[in-house]
Structures are given as C-alpha cells and as structure tokens.
C-alpha cells in the first residue's frame, strides 16, 4: 500500500502539470462552453467519488493556487490569458494568448506557479501540528511533490522555463535526469516528458540555423522590394527588358534548384541546406515579382499588395531575428539571481516533500 501511494502521487503530480501544456484541451472545453467555476465543481465531484471530498477539495485548491500564480505573473507582465479550466483527473490549465518577450519574463511567469503553490500548502503545517490529523500531512506531501516535480530543469516543465534564463543548455541535463528516472521507475508519463524535452533541446541546437534562415528571408525580401521600387521608375521599354531579364534569372535559378534538390543531414550539412533555402526563396519571390509586373507592365493593385506583403514579411523577419538573438540573453546578475531563487525553492520543496512523506509513513495505517 505504501509503495502504491508513492507511485500514484508521483503519477498524479506529473499529469497535473502536463495539463497546463495541453492547450487543445482548453479549446475543447471552450467549445463545450465550460466555465471556470463549472469545471471546478465538476473536478471536485469527480475526485470526491474516487478519493473522498476532503482530498478532492484539497487537490483542486492546490491546483487553483498554482495556476493563480501563473495568472498573477502573466497579469504583471501584461500577457493576456484564458480563465482557469479544471479537467477531472488531468488537472487545470491557463493558456497564454501571447508569448513572453524574453527568457527572463518566461522565468518570472514559470516561477510564480511553484512559488504560489508552495505558499498554498503552508497552512497545512499549523493545521497538522494542532490536530495531528494525517490528512494534513498528505496535503503537505502532495502540494510539495507537485511543485517540486514542476521544478525539474526540463522543458516544458516550469523548471525548464526558469533555467532558460540561466542557460538553456541545462535542459540537456534535465533530459538525462528524466531518462535516468524513467529507467529507474518506468511509467507512462516520463516518455512523454522525455519526448517534449528532446524536441526543445533539438530546437535549441537549431536556433542558429533558424536565425540564418530568417536573415536569408529578410535579405531576399529587401532585394526584391528594392528591385520593384526601381522598376516602377523605369519607362515602359526599360520595364520590358528588365522583365525579360527576371524571367531568365528565374529560369536559371529553377534549374539550379532542381539540380541541387536532395536530402541533407541536419547540423553536418547546414550550409548546403541554407544555400538551397536561399534558392527556394529566390524562386518564390521572383515568381511573385513577375506576376506583379506581368508583360512588363505595372498592375497597380497587385504591385501595391505585393509591396505591402514584402514590407510585412521584412518586419516579421526582423522581429524573429531579434528574438533569436536576444531571447535567452541576460546579464550575470540576472543569471545568478534566478539560479539562487531556483535552488532555494527546490530545497524548500524537497524538505517539505520529505516531511510530508514522513508524516504519511508514520500514519500509514490511518491513511490506508
């Protein structure tokens, strides 16, 4: 029985967190017109049937406080969110309607959940000391374990989002740690976390590649925009000659692209892949340019639309370039501050997890 309780507590804690990452579930509940309050009472009822009403209320309360921490942080950052939706035997979630602007903001947003979650179960301490009711020990253990597991330095867990501002390379250690945990204690949730964490680690490795792609996209858009602006100043005869030149250039690049099309190994053949991407973008943009200036003329509405689209893409490219360049950038003071805050909260939660488990072990017969 003791082993069983440890297993379901660990399993439940992971499931509760993962619920906050499943935005598609929020869409389903919106479609069904479930309000926050209705979903809360449904969750309490569902948990009460299985575990009893006291446990149900305590669990939903812990979920609520954790999510309210994220909501409070999002409001402070000016990030709009959905209302909290509670999903029986899955947890609760609040979806962000905008992404954080930096890893520092993301860390602040993520840290608030476990911090508020810790403050949320602290009232169980004096209640246990005064009543010696083992239920409050269970509340301490459950609240501490849920938030401690969230602090594992693996994306998309809160801990992974926090350590991103320190160094996103820490995710690789989190990935190794989760793999070791799975080998030691196999379960259905760890493989999902390992998969999501591996995807994020891969994205980190490809960050420079994505930055170079955004640079290429921006350069080609700017080149085509400048060519079109010069074209508009030419006479009709000059436009026709330029148009023929563009047709020849497009045909040449299409031929070269067909010749170069093949599979390239990521990382090892990135330069060849970037060259292909440049060719693909040139073919696409010059095809659009020829369509906008068909027969060497000037289709006013088409040209204006094309110019607007190019300017918009250039702006988006610039934003992507800046985000890739500075998102995880932080000064030494910021990194050390978040490292200390992260370790301090993890130590506090580890102590309370052990303390709560000690209470449960001492009262095993009563809890069983």
Automatic annotation (TrEMBL):
<keyword id="KW-0645">Protease</keyword>
<feature type="transmembrane region" description="Helical">
    <location>
        <begin position="135"/>
        <end position="155"/>
    </location>
</feature>
<feature type="transmembrane region" description="Helical">
    <location>
        <begin position="162"/>
        <end position="183"/>
    </location>
</feature>
<keyword id="KW-0862">Zinc</keyword>
<keyword id="KW-0479">Metal-binding</keyword>
<dbReference type="InterPro" id="IPR008915">
    <property type="entry name" value="Peptidase_M50"/>
</dbReference>
<feature type="transmembrane region" description="Helical">
    <location>
        <begin position="336"/>
        <end position="356"/>
    </location>
</feature>
<feature type="transmembrane region" description="Helical">
    <location>
        <begin position="189"/>
        <end position="205"/>
    </location>
</feature>
<dbReference type="GO" id="GO:0046872">
    <property type="term" value="F:metal ion binding"/>
</dbReference>
<comment type="similarity">
    <text>Belongs to the peptidase M50B family.</text>
</comment>
<keyword id="KW-0378">Hydrolase</keyword>
<dbReference type="GO" id="GO:0006508">
    <property type="term" value="P:proteolysis"/>
</dbReference>
<feature type="transmembrane region" description="Helical">
    <location>
        <begin position="38"/>
        <end position="65"/>
    </location>
</feature>
<keyword id="KW-0472">Membrane</keyword>
<dbReference type="GO" id="GO:0008237">
    <property type="term" value="F:metallopeptidase activity"/>
</dbReference>
<feature type="transmembrane region" description="Helical">
    <location>
        <begin position="6"/>
        <end position="26"/>
    </location>
</feature>
<keyword id="KW-1133">Transmembrane helix</keyword>
<dbReference type="GO" id="GO:0016020">
    <property type="term" value="C:membrane"/>
</dbReference>
<feature type="domain" description="Peptidase M50">
    <location>
        <begin position="55"/>
        <end position="129"/>
    </location>
</feature>
<keyword id="KW-0812">Transmembrane</keyword>
<keyword id="KW-0482">Metalloprotease</keyword>
<protein>
    <submittedName>
        <fullName>Peptidase M50</fullName>
    </submittedName>
</protein>
<feature type="transmembrane region" description="Helical">
    <location>
        <begin position="108"/>
        <end position="129"/>
    </location>
</feature>
<dbReference type="Pfam" id="PF02163">
    <property type="entry name" value="Peptidase_M50"/>
</dbReference>
């Amino acid at each position: 029985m003791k082993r069983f309780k440890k297993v379901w507590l660990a399993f439940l804690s992971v499931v509760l967190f993962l619920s906050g990452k499943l935005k598609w579930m929020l869409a389903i509940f919106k479609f069904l017109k479930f309000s926050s309050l209705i979903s809360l009472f449904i969750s309490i009822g569902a948990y009460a049937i299985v575990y009893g009403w006291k446990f149900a209320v305590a669990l939903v309360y812990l979920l609520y406080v954790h999510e309210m921490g994220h909501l409070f942080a999002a409001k402070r950052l000016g990030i709009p969110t959905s209302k909290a939706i509670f999903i029986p035997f899955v947890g609760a979630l609040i979806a962000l309607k905008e992404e954080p602007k930096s890893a520092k903001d993301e860390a602040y947003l993520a840290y608030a959940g476990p911090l508020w979650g810790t403050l949320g179960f602290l009232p169980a301490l004096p209640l246990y000391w005064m009543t010696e009711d083992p239920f409050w020990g269970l509340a301490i253990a459950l609240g501490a374990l849920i938030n401690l597991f969230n602090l594992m330095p693996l994306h998309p867990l809160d801990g992974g989002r926090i350590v991103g501002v320190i160094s996103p390379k820490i995710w690789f250690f989190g990935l190794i740690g989760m793999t070791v945990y799975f080998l030691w204690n196999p379960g259905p949730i760890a493989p999902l976390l390992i998969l999501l964490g591996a995807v994020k680690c891969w994205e980190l490795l490809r960050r420079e590649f994505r930055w170079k792609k955004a640079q290429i996209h921006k350069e080609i858009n700017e080149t085509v925009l400048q060519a079109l602006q010069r074209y508009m100043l030419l006479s009709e005869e000059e436009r026709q000659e330029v148009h023929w030149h563009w047709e020849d250039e497009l045909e040449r690049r299409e031929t070269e692209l067909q010749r170069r099309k093949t599979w390239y190994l990521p990382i090892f053949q990135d330069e060849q892949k970037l060259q292909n991407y440049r060719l693909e973008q040139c073919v696409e943009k010059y095809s659009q340019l020829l369509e906008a200036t068909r027969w060497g003329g000037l289709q006013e509405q088409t040209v204006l639309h094309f110019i607007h689209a190019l300017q918009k893409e250039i702006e988006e490219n610039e934003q992507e370039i800046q985000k890739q360049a500075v998102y995880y950038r932080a000064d030494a003071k910021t990194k050390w501050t978040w490292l200390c805050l992260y370790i301090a909260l993890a130590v506090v939660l580890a102590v309370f997890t052990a303390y709560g488990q000690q209470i449960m072990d001492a009262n095993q017969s009563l809890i069983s």
